[in-house]
Specification:
Length: 175
């Protein structure tokens, strides 16, 4: 995935607005996925998505705290357009299946988190403002922590018989 060319991140407030939008969207999407799994009585997978939603919400709250600390009353509108149909950390509903196993759900989350880490690392490389660069590096680092966390979680769920998620989503290379 490449960073969208329309994305202009030249100031800390633009970056914070952007990150806030990304993290909020990621959290909301995980929460929606949890609800959808609940509706199909797939409670184990619902729990996984809810926990992912909580992680991303914490992340968004951390960004919100930074906004307050920096006294940024008005953030610019995060006017971003993805080159992909979804945000860098946003789960794709077409990857959902109501019979999906916890392992499949975690693989989906793993894919999202890897994508987010690569995305922010890419931004860090491209932006010219040093403060923004530092923030993007921190974001990439945080997303890599999420990746490690999901990888550890996956150890609790050994191989399934039908790993369709792995088939449709080849692993993203870490840059
Ligand atoms: Zn994350």
């Amino acid at each position: 995935m490449t960073t969208n060319e329309h994305l202009k991140l030249e100031s800390v407030s633009e970056m914070l607005a952007f990150v806030l939008a990304v993290e909020t969207e990621a959290s909301e999407r995980y929460a929606e996925m949890a609800e959808s799994m609940d509706a199909h009585n797939n409670t184990k997978v619902a729990e996984i998505f809810r926990e992912m939603a909580d992680i991303e919400e914490l992340h968004a709250e951390g960004v919100q705290r930074q906004v307050t600390e920096l006294n940024l009353e008005y953030l610019p509108k995060a006017d971003y357009k993805w080159s992909a149909p979804e945000g860098p950390e946003t789960g794709d509903f077409s990857d959902l299946h109501y019979l999906m196993t916890p392992r499949e759900a975690l693989l989906l989350a793993l894919h999202n988190e890897k994508r987010a880490a690569v995305y922010f690392a890419d931004i860090a490389e491209k932006v010219t403002n040093d403060d923004v660069k530092k923030m993007a590096q921190e974001m990439a680092e945080e997303e890599r922590e999420h990746v490690q966390w999901v990888e550890k979680w996956l150890l609790d769920y050994p191989e399934d018989e039908n790993e369709w998620v792995e088939d449709v989503d080849p692993p993203v290379e870490q840059g």
